[in-house]
Amino acid sequence: MSVDFNFLTSKQKKVYTAIESFIKENGMPPTVREIGELIGEKTPGAVQGILNRLEEKGVIRRQPRVARSIQLVQENSNYADHVYLPLIKKISQRNVDDLLNMYNIVKYYPVPAHLFENAENHFIIQCPDNSLLDSGISYEDTLVIDMKPDLKDGDIVLLMYENLTILRYYSPHEDSDKVVLKADSDLIGKEVFSRDEIKIIGKMVAKFTKY
After folding, report:
1. Where is the LexA repressor DNA-binding domain (predicted)?
2. Domain that includes residue 136, residue range
3. Which residue among 47, 73, 163, 172 is least packed, with the fewest CB closer than 10 Å?
4. Residue 106, SS3 per DSSP
5. DSSP state of 187
6. What is the pTM of this model?
7. CA 178, 180, 183 angle in degrees (round to 5)?
């Protein structure tokens, strides 16, 4: 990576090099704690300060409030800007309100930045439901979910109903306290739900399929 180290201090060079090496070895950026371990700095605030200086000098870029979001900046790069989205392990009644807690994240994966605005509201999950199989969505697919969508008629949503994590086509109901949720094959036996009995986790905005 072509970076002019002449305008970086020795500590800034050390942190930059540690980040670059970590990404090459692990395929994702390090956390502040991991950077501290790599350079022998025990104080997170000190590491954060160096990262702030590197960002001010334009050699790294970060997403606010998103772990592992450090990107190394290179002028005239052939590589498109990217963001890192977390792949989560599971969704359950116990963690549905805190899906992005550190214990539920498997790994962060780079995706093209232009595809996902407000990336901090997105996560990746292995498809948990086969009820939209006729629509081409199956257990083998990997889904990207937007947790803060502006829902429209016909959107595909991921939701919890009782202990089930399911996919459905969303439609508003004439009764504002209800919602219509349709599937290609419905084993539950209902399409109209009270908003109190479901938890809409988010809208499916992308699907990765391996052929």
Report:
1. 8-68
2. 85-208
3. 163
4. strand
5. S
6. 0.70
7. 150
Q: What is the pLDDT of residues 60-104, one digit of tens each?
A: 988 877 778 888 886 555 566 778 899 999 999 999 999 999 899
**Nearest residue to 123 via CA among 158, 168, 151:** 158
Coil, strand, or helix at residue 45? helix
Secondary structure class of 95 (helix, strand, coil): coil
CATH number at residue 24: 1.10.10.10
Q: Which of 17, 104, 25 is nearest to 54 (CA)?
A: 17
- Tens of pLDDT along 119-156? 889 999 999 999 999 999 999 999 999 999 999 999 99
Q: What is the largest CA-CA distance in the chain?
A: 67
pLDDT more than 70, % of the chain: 94
Inside any domain, residue 80: no
d(CA 205, CA 116): 9
User: Distance between CA atoms of 150 and 202, rounded to whole angstroms?
Assistant: 10
Residue type, 100: L
For residue 170, list its beta bridge partners. Answer: 181
Given a contact cutoff of 8 angstroms between Cβ atoms, the answer to whether 174 and 158 are in contact is no
Alpha-carbon distance values, 129 to 42, 158, 170, 197 (Å) = 44, 9, 15, 19
CA–CA dist 146, 134 (Å, integer):
22
Going by their DSSP bridges, the two strands 122-126 and 60-61 should be labelled as unpaired
Q: Return d(Cα 120, Cα 83) in angstroms, integer.
A: 9
What 3-state class would DSSP assign to 80?
coil
Both 56 and 105 in one domain: the answer is: no
